[in-house]
Structures are given as C-alpha cells and as structure tokens.
Design a protein that fits this description.
The complex is a heterodimer of chains A (281) and B (276). With 281 residues, chain A is mainly alpha-helical. Chain A is built from eleven helices and no strands. Chain A has a single domain, classed as ABC transporter involved in vitamin B12 uptake, BtuC (Orthogonal Bundle). Chain B is globular, with a radius of gyration of 19 Å. Chain B has 276 residues and is an alpha/beta fold. Chain B has two domains: 228 residues, P-loop containing nucleotide triphosphate hydrolases (Rossmann fold, 3-Layer(aba) Sandwich), CATH 3.40.50.300; 45 residues, no CATH class. Chains A and B meet through helix 7, helix 8 and helix 10 of A and strand 5, helix 3 and helix 5 of B.
Chain lengths: 281, 276
C-alpha cells in the first residue's frame, strides 16, 4: 500500500486534495458549482484533442479549461451566467466526441480521463501537478480578501474598487488551472466531487471563513486518503469511495449543524430568508 | 477637483446638473442638490423613479451623460463614501460572522490574507459597539434578522470612516420596530460623527422626525429643500405634472396623485405612492 509506485499516488492525490479544498471553498461560497462542473468536463475534450495531435494531455487540458474559463467569464457578463456556462460545456463536449471518434485510443484511456488514474501517476507527472498546485494556492491567497468581499457583496465590493468581472475572471482561471492539474490524477468527474463536497461540509462546522477553508482542505485530504486505502483493500474503484465519502461528510456536517442549532438560543424575528434564494451568480 | 475650497465649508457632496441616459431612456434629468456634513437627507420616490441610479452615479458606478458629481476632497472613490445596497441576500450557510463582514469594510479591497491584528480587532469591536451589535458579533450574518443585518451593513460601511453614507432602501423588509431603530441609529451617527447620510426610500414617513433635507424624485427630476418646502401640493404638482394632494394624517404624510378618490380607497401610503 505504501510501495514506491503507490507513493506517487498518495503524493499526487494529496496535492489535488489540498488545492481542491482551497479552491472549493470559494466555488461553494460564490455558488459557482456549475462552472466547476463545466470546466473539468470541457477540459476532458482538450485531453482527447491533445492525444489526437500527439501532444501531452496536460497541454490540451490547460488550453481547453482556460478558454472555457474566459468564455464563461466573458459571456456571463452579457448573458445569464448559467446559460453561458451550459453553452461552454455543450460546445466542448461536442468537440470531445469529435476528437474521440478520430483517435485510436483505447477505451481505458478515455475512462481514466473521466475517473482518474491515481495509481498510474508517474514521478515525471508529479512535478507539473505540484507546480500548478502551488500556483493555484498562491493565487487564491493573493486575492483572498477581495475575492471574499466580491463573493459576499459584489455590489459593495465594486463600489470599493473591487471589480466583479475582474474577480470572476481571476477566479475562473484558478478553477481552470485546478482542473488542468487534477483531471489526470482524479479525473473530470471526481475533481468536481472534491471541489464541492469538502467545502460544503466544512461550512457546517465553523462560522469563520478562513477556518472553513482550512477545514475544507482537511476533509478533502481525509476523503482521498481513505478512498485510496479503501480502494486498495477492497479492489473497488476509487471514484466510488471519493463520491460516497464526500456525500457522507456533507451529511455529517448538516447533521452536526442541525444539532448545534437546536441547542443554541432560538432566533426571534428572522424574516423568512430562504437558503434556496441566497445563491449568487 | 478643487477640494474643500471649491465645495464650501460644510458641503461634502455636490450634485451639479446630472443627467443619465441608459439604453436610450433618460433616467435622470438635470438633477442638482448638495449635502452637508452631519446632515440627514431622504431620497424619496416610487419604485423605478431613479433613486438607485442616482446613488450609483454618486458611487461612480454609472457615468452621467451630463453634469458633475463632487465629493469633498475631489475624490469620488471610497473610503469617502460608505454604501449599503438594496436587498442584500446573505446565505445562512455561509461561514461568515457579523464581525468578519464588518472587517471587510477595513481592508476587503486589499490583496493577501487577513492577518490577525489587535488594532484591527479593536477597531471592529468599537464599530460593533457603535451600532449596538456587540451582542451578535460572533453570529453568522446569514442567520441574523433583517434589522440586525442592517446594523452590520451600516457598521461595514462606516468602519472606513467615510464622510458620506449612502443607503439604498435600508428600511425595506424591516418590521416597524427595527425600522425605527435603524433610523434613530443613522440620525445619531450623522450628528455625532458629522457624516452626511443619504437614504433612499419609497416611504418618507419613518424619516420625517429626523430628516434635515428631502430630495424628492419623480419622472427623473427632483425637488429639494426642507420637508415643508418640498412636500406640498404646489411643489409636487409641479414635479409630477399632474395634480397632487398632500394629506397630513396624525404624524404621517400621504401623497396622493391623480384621481384622489380612487387613491384614497387604498388607505396606505405605499399603494398611494405607487399610483403616481
């Protein structure tokens, strides 16, 4: 389980989990789950295209996810954000199916782009993953305050000189880079799970934003580590464990929050605020 | 851009002949008024009259097609202006305490991570105290009531020590008790800290006891002065271009436009004002 071959798996999965925890905090805060779904799936087409013309998959992933991020941010200013995101995913999946029909890759290669290949990460792949990961985290830390401000109160932040559109572009580019480094490791579908579940669960355990981000990293690490171990022991796919543990932590978080709320003083005069209407962008 | 000398001793905002045209439609036309330090001004008008547009012009988020906005010091950007926008939805699931939201008012626009600092903490504590919000400082903002959230948003806007505070419909969705509390709080802040306060609202009645000046907006034009000067049948008839009656009932004022009998049947200010 901790052989030399497995060390690459543990290392790469840990880097992905840390970045996903940090970036995921803002995805959930900003209500950008749909964009976090669209970019990895769109980038998948980039990887298929890259194999078609014989370049490294990570190049195709980077090109497609960055283009996708810029398109969503650009179109989202003029049209509805969800529609812009949906159009990006549709166009990219269309291209993906075209590229796939033209390549001679075996099905398992395609399968690994969707569900990842944690156990197949080589030492040479570990370097770009680590470098992009550090860039993502550094970028989030650099814009932490304005991004938090703009996510919570976009209009007020704008009046203070924090442009809403600028923040959106910066953030989507970070998501695009996260996608680029994570898809080869955990796949397009599982990075989505790692971006959402830990960050969503962390919100239930703390009221402090930065603590929630740290907790999101801890939960993401716990999720991938236990998923790898369980997959190794049971011979069931890692994806199954990542998905179900992710949903499990969220359920535990909600349960904990519900229990805590019942114990705290009953709030008076809270006027019908529905969580469902509180999502922004 | 002449600063204090140009704007007079106490004047902190001067709106000079502002016109705004958005997608071919004239929203504001030749709006002129000014606000002095320590003064409480109500921006009154029905929905869609152009109140939010005017506030956004003052904030520099919309450029007027004509006219000038001068803020004391010649700068139009924060932190000279504190802003509380209309209808903010704060997600109850969001991990953000009241104290964190106030803190964003100090340095939310700066790069980097927030480093713990005792001066910063003290500053936030003092501000929370000033708006009487210490009690729920550690609570999630999304879980607070409408009135409590307004206090936190006001604290957020004030902590950067602005000279002018703009609030867009801060009384909407508040029950009568919290409405009065928020108005009293703002009036006290205006006086004690010598800040100009400009509040937009479709119902002037809660502001009547504290308003120093009224800016009444209709059809993209304004009438300004004291409440007695502006809220009169003659002045509002001129502004609206149709006959307007101003009726005093107890301590409240009803503005009735057009066909008086029909409007009166509705019985409350809001629906009458809507008729305009």
């Amino acid at each position: 389980m901790f052989s030399a071959l497995m060390l690459n798996a543990w290392g790469s999965a840990s880097i992905v989990a840390i970045v996903a925890g940090v970036v995921g905090f803002f995805i959930v805060l900003r209500g950008s789950a749909f964009a976090a779904h669209a970019l990895p799936n769109g980038a998948f087409a980039g990887a298929a295209g890259a194999s078609l013309i014989g370049v490294d998959a990570i190049v195709g992933l980077a090109v497609f996810s960055v283009l996708g991020a810029l398109t969503i941010a650009g179109l989202g200013r003029r049209a509805r954000h969800d529609v812009a995101t949906a159009l990006v995913i549709v166009v990219m999946l269309g291209l993906g199916s075209l590229f796939l029909s033209m390549t001679t890759e075996y099905a398992p290669e395609i399968y690994s782009l969707l569900f990842g290949e944690v156990l197949g990460v080589s030492s040479s792949e570990l370097v770009p993953i680590a470098v992009i990961g550090v860039v993502c985290i550094a970028a989030v830390f650099l814009v932490y305050r304005p991004l938090l401000f703009s996510s919570v109160m976009p209009e007020v932040a704008e009046a203070r000189g924090v442009g809403r559109g600028r923040m959106e572009v910066v953030f989507l580019l970070v998501v695009a880079l996260t996608t680029t480094m994570a898809v080869p490791v955990v796949g397009a579908l599982l990075i989505f799970s790692l971006l959402i579940s830990p960050a969503a669960a962390a919100r239930s355990f703390t009221d402090r934003p930065f603590t929630a981000m740290g907790l999101s990293v801890v939960i993401a690490l716990g999720t991938v580590w236990s998923a790898i171990a369980l997959a190794y022991l049971s011979n069931l796919p890692i994806g199954f464990f990542v998905g179900s543990i992710g949903a499990g932590t969220y359920a535990v978080g909600r349960g904990w929050a519900g229990w805590r709320n019942r114990r705290s003083r009953p709030r008076m005069g809270a006027t019908g605020r529905s969580p469902a209407t509180a999502q922004s962008s | 851009m002449q600063g204090r000398a140009a704007t007079g001793s106490d004047e902190i905002l001067a709106i000079d002949g502002i016109s705004v045209t958005l997608s071919g439609r004239e929203i504001l036309s030749d709006v002129t008024f000014h606000i002095n330090a320590g003064e409480f001004t109500g921006l009154i008008g029905s929905n869609g009259a152009g109140k939010t547009t005017l506030l956004r012009v003052i904030l520099g988020l919309i450029s007027p097609s004509a006219g000038m906005v001068r803020v004391e010091g010649g700068l139009r950007r924060q932190p000279l202006i504190g802003y509380v926008p209309q209808r903010i939805t704060l997600d109850p699931d969001m991990p953000l305490r009241a104290r964190d939201l106030v803190g964003l008012g100090i340095d939310g626009q700066r790069f980097g991570l927030p480093l713990p600092s005792s001066t910063r903490r003290k500053q936030v504590d003092e501000m929370l105290e000033a708006v009487d919000a210490t009690r729920f400082a550690e609570s999630r903002v999304g879980n607070l009531s409408g009135g409590e959230q307004q206090r936190i948003l006001i604290a957020h806007a004030l902590i950067s020590r602005p000279r002018l505070l703009l609030l867009d419909e801060p009384l909407a969705n508040l029950d009568i008790g919290s409405e009065q509390e928020v108005v009293d709080l703002l009036a006290r802040i205006a006086r004690e800290q010598r800040i100009g306060v400009l509040i937009s609202t479709h119902d002037m009645n809660p502001l009547l006891p504290v308003m120093d000046r009224i800016v009444y907006i209709a059809n993209g034009r304004i009438a300004t002065g004291t409440t007695a000067e502006v809220v009169s049948s003659e002045s509002l008839t001129r502004l609206y271009g149709v006959h307007v009656d101003v009726i005093h009932v107890h301590d409240r004022i009803l503005v009735v436009a057009g066909r008086r009998e029909e409007a009166l049947q509705h019985g409350d200010t809001e629906s009458i004002v809507e008729l305009m």
